């Protein structure tokens, strides 16, 4: 059977739960110390994923991966306070939002900010991550952006190698030694690709 990989803009409702599960699993290192409850976290993510800020990969129609981006209108993970407080209570929701704000990144003019890229484990090795990255760069170009920016943690060298192969250049590395005890990584590198 021929394998057909398709990359499209927008997240369909029938892929929403798979996308939330995949996103949480892929970024568990960052998210679980904050959410602490996987089932509730995935439920909140499912409601919060902003489909208009997603490029989605399918293989023969099956969900295979997602790449999110952030701009002035929003981001892939649009965690609204009311959803967080509904799921975790008033104080539980607000302290989690405060903790998540540690990972917020500012926008820059004419630059598309990537908001995570993940591929389903059973679909890896097919070039899907590379295709999602190419599609994100092309989407930025079509929007008139002059660059694409992303951040990669120091415990993910494979992702950094992919970004470097695609022409991303490290522009800044920040160290957070205390994060190693909480999140398992101690720094991140900002990478930029001019388009």
What are its keywords?
alpha+beta; seven-stranded mixed β-sheet; 195 residues; Aminopeptidase; globular; 40% helix
What does this protein look like?
The protein is an alpha+beta fold. It has a single domain (5-194), classed as Aminopeptidase (3-Layer(aba) Sandwich). 40% of the residues lie in helices and 26% in strands. It has helices at 16-26, 28-35, 38-48, 81-88, 90-100, 128-142, 157-165, 179-183; strands at 5-9, 54-59, 62-70, 111-119, 147-153, 169-175, 187-194. The protein has a seven-stranded mixed β-sheet, sandwiched between helices. Helix 1 (16-26) packs across helix 2 (28-35) and helix 3 runs antiparallel to helix 4.
Structural class of the secondary elements? alpha+beta
CATH topological fold name: Aminopeptidase
In whole angstroms, how far apart are the ends?
A: 36 Å
- The dominant shape is globular
Number of strands: 7
List the helices and strands and how they pair.
Elements: E1 5-9, H1 16-26, H2 28-35, H3 38-48, E2 54-59, E3 62-70, H4 81-88, H5 90-100, E4 111-119, H6 128-142, E5 147-153, H7 157-165, E6 169-175, H8 179-183, E7 187-194
Parallel strand pairs: 4-5
Antiparallel strand pairs: 1-2, 2-3, 3-4, 5-7, 6-7
Helix pairs in contact: 1-2, 1-3, 3-4, 4-5
Summarize the structure.
The chain is of the alpha+beta class and 195 residues long. The chain has one domain (5-194): Gcn5-related N-acetyltransferase (GNAT) (Aminopeptidase), CATH 3.40.630.30. Helix content is 40%, strand content 26%.
């Amino acid at each position: 059977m021929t394998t057909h990989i398709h990359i499209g803009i927008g997240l369909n409702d029938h892929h929403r739960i798979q996308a939330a599960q995949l996103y949480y699993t892929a970024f568990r290192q960052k998210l679980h110390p904050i959410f602490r409850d996987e089932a509730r976290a995935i439920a909140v993510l499912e409601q919060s994923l902003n489909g208009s800020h997603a490029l989605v990969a399918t293989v023969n129609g099956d969900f295979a991966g997602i790449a999110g981006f952030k701009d002035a209108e929003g981001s892939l993970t649009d965690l609204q306070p009311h959803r967080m407080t509904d799921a975790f209570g008033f104080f539980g929701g607000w302290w989690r939002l405060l903790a998540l704000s540690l990972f917020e990144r500012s926008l820059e003019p004419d630059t598309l900010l990537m908001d995570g890229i993940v591929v389903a484990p059973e679909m890896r090795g097919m070039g899907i991550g590379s295709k999602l990255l190419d599609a994100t760069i092309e989407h930025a170009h079509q929007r008139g952006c002059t660059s694409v920016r992303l951040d990669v943690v120091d415990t993910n060298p494979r992702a950094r190698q992919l970004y470097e192969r695609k022409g991303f250049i490290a522009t800044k590395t920040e160290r957070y030694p205390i994060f190693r005890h909480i999140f398992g990584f101690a720094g991140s590198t900002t990478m930029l690709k001019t388009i």
